[in-house]
Specification:
Blueprint: H1 2-19, E1 28-34, H2 39-47, E2 51-58, E3 61-69
């Protein structure tokens, strides 16, 4: 339940931030990644242009919200 609340908060914050920007702003795409991620897998996502904008954990499982500029 806490995971869903945290993800909803992060998504709504990002949505509101996107609605308040000018038309010259970049367009973003978002991705959710669940599960324990290794440094190598996070570095691969970073190489693909993804940035972590939110993270929460439930027990040993991490939940990430990523974003990058639309290509």
């Amino acid at each position: 339940m806490k995971k869903h609340i945290a993800l909803m908060f992060a998504a709504s914050t990002l949505l509101l931030a996107g609605c308040c920007t000018t038309h010259q702003a970049k367009h973003w795409e978002y991705k959710q990644v669940d599960g324990l991620q290794s440094d190598a897998s996070l570095n691969k996502l970073a190489d693909e242009g993804w940035s972590i904008v939110a993270m929460s954990a439930t027990g040993d499982v991490a939940h990430y919200v990523l974003k990058r500029a639309k290509q």
